Amino acid sequence: YRFVQGNTATQLKLTLSAFGSTTPYDLTGAIVTVYVRNSNTKAFLVARECFINPEEADQGIAYFVWAENDIDDVTGVFEGEIEIQWADGTQERLFDIVQFVVREQFS
């Protein structure tokens, strides 16, 4: 996924399922968090809770949105680890890593 430095309106639509499965998770009552770090230095950047629309929760859909200042001063390649905290309190970190590229803005 590609982003421009300083963006806060860009969102990433995630459709989550178990590793090797095409059946989406039911995220009703769940909290999805993406932990982002620099893929070269492994320096932690941000943890951001995703938005889950209740009407789409049973389709495994969550939206990751950068907050103000998240990517104002960074460029490069980043990776995100996705964590689901289920309604019953159990946690699951998904195997697949999300790749992000952030390029410098022109002005």
Walkthrough of the structure:
The protein is mostly beta strands and 107 residues long. Helix content is 0%, strand content 47%. It contains no helices and seven strands. It has strands at 2-4, 11-15, 31-38, 44-49, 61-65, 76-85, 91-103. Strands 1-7-6-3-4 form a five-stranded mixed sheet, with no helix packed on it. A two-stranded antiparallel sheet has the order 2-5. A hairpin with a 5-residue loop joins β6 and β7 (91-103). It is globular, with a radius of gyration of 14 Å. The two termini are 21 Å apart.
| Strand/helix succession | EEEEEEE
Mean pLDDT: 93
Helix percent reads under 10%
Q: For the report, how would you describe the main beta sheet?
A: 5 strands, mixed
Q: How are strands sequenced across the largest beta sheet?
A: 1-7-6-3-4
Question: Which spans of ≥5 residues are poorly predicted at pLDDT below 50?
Answer: none
| Cα distance spanning the termini | 21 Å
How many helices? 0
